[in-house]
Amino acid sequence: MWGLLLALAAFAPAVGPGLGAPGTSVLGLAPPAATEARGSTLAPQSSPVQPPAGKSNGTSEQHVRIRIVKKKKIIMKKRKKLTRPGPLVTAKPPVTTTPAGALDPLEEQEPGCPPLGLESLRVSDSQLEASSSQSFGLGPHRGRLNIQSGLEDGDLYDGAWCAEEQDTEPWFQVDARHPTRFSGIITQGRNSVWRYDWVTSYKVQFSNDSQTWWGSRNRSSGTDAVFPANSDPETPVLNLLPEPQVARFIRLLPQKWLQGGTSCLRAEILACPISDPNDLFPKAPELESSDPLDFRHHNYKAMRKLMKEVNEKCPNITRIYSIGKSHQGLKLYVMEMSDQPGEHELGEPEVRYVAGMHGNEALGRELVLLLMQFLCHEFLRGDPRVTRLLTETRIHLLPSMNPDGYETAFRRVAPETRAVIEWMKRIPFVLSANLHGGELVVSYPFDMTRTPWAARELTPTPDDSVFRWLSTVYAGTNRAMQDPDRRPCHNQDFSLHGNIINGADWHTVPGSMNDFSYLHTNCFEITVELSCDKFPHENELPQEWENNKDALLTYLEQVRMGITGVVRDKDTELGIADAVIAVDGINHDVTTAWGGDYWRLLTPGDYMVTASAEGYHTATRSCRVPFEEGPVPCNFHLTKTPKQRLRELLAAGAKVPPDLRRRLERLRGQKH
């Protein structure tokens, strides 16, 4: 969400229900024409909202000010904006002693304060109140920025707070629980497949006891400030207060909303904690980590600089390489971390983390950058867990698969996709996870439903038990997912199922990274939705790191689960590349790397494993995977077939032995 303040004027098309959270738009900043709610293809076709009676269907021009915050510099720009699509309903102002005045321009004020935490769920449901609610599913606990609704109106997971229709003095209230300096508000309308509801203007009030209230006023006129709100359901609108206010409670009082609709909004509050010298209130929990890492957001230039610093600090275990370029020519940098960087060691598995597939999902990018810093620091410190991880595995970290998207908030394009596909085929990856944001859940393949027209359908792979285990490992070691008091991000409570879900049973995604990895490479890959907030503020990064640190390490260690070995030629002892490893009862094979080594992830049990290669007799053996940490060695020596031996003799120019020649002649005669 903090990306909103960093690029408020950067609009981008919606990211559909692909590998990220379903139906969420890039930074929530998509213009109305490009924004679709989840499941919007199911919405009936209807005519657009009609203009006010007596006015033409043409559009009038209206100048509005767009604030762009860029490296702590504020630029004021004017652009033309279409009139609202319908007449407005004016609500009776509940508390005012002077006529409402126009909002003063904010030429010198900056956002400054971070989000209070409505979107990230740091603000609990009990801290949100309202004057009224149409239903439980439209209660104040649903008035969180970017919250997504279900497909059915009237269920428990609707897409905003909505006051009752007869409520002429509606208000939405947030209890910060501590003295807080409020500096701004971000609002959206209602997320819904079926309805259009949004507030077009509101006032703001403050209180220390929820009884006595005062309003935000214009500095020049002293009148109550009326803040312009939304003109569509999805585009977030930021308003900074004329003067920051210190209080415990903040209220939004809608003044006008779309005709035919009701007062509905989703919001985030910008607020800075302040000291409480009298200790009258419980202290707010501090978001911190003991790890000495760089907890900041990094653009492309800063990302390159940080990766270079890690490489210079740990040159013996790191290597930076590029797998290609983006559409705009930005290199796709990967950090390799291993005790022998730059080469594939026989018997050592390759693992990867990929982040930044969607440019607005910044948390995954930062976690990957934090992970490479942490591995470097802990290796130098001699941490045994990290040392073993770097000694026994080769780790590849791609922090930004879509650097163009992070810089400009546009969706990823073909060059990045091609580069990643070639990378996935070139290196014998065994285990992977791609990191996203917008939800708190781990999904596993298949991501595409078996029934082509089904929007969702349970579609497991032949290795469903392995994928469920891998997903459970990450979800079970993620602090946020294991918090028993946490509430759902949007409209599904994944905690009821252990915070894991089959991707196709969530929403179908044709051509996902997970499915490609499983069907076209040896790699087992899952998707991790890291947080309800795709773009958390920098001060939340330490907590997000602590939420995911152990999960990131534990997941990589699962590459030791199953069997591993080398398929060799019995005569030469050389490894056989592209040999097929088949497990009886599981319709999914893996192949050996160029040195003949392979890795096959399996859950504990007894398996019959067969190795086969062109020109060799097949070999089958029993391999047991215990509950103790593996992997279990399961090697093969294959014997060449007579036909293969003959081919090699003829290819070498050798004469065919007389007995073999006579045998071949007899075989030819029998054939004729």
UniProtKB/TrEMBL annotation:
Residues 296-559 form the Peptidase M14 domain. Keywords: Carboxypeptidase, Glycoprotein, Hydrolase, Metal-binding, Metalloprotease, Protease, Signal, Zinc. Belongs to the peptidase M14 family. Residues 87-100 have a biased composition (Low complexity). The active site is at 529 (proton donor/acceptor). One of its GO terms (biological process) is proteolysis. Residues 37-63, 82-104 are annotated as: Disordered. Residues 111-272 form the F5/8 type C domain. This is Carboxypeptidase X, M14 family member 1. GO terms for molecular function: metallocarboxypeptidase activity; zinc ion binding. The gene is CPXM1. PANTHER family: CARBOXYPEPTIDASE X1-RELATED, PROTEASE M14 CARBOXYPEPTIDASE. Its cofactor is Zn(2+). It comes from Canis lupus familiaris (Dog).
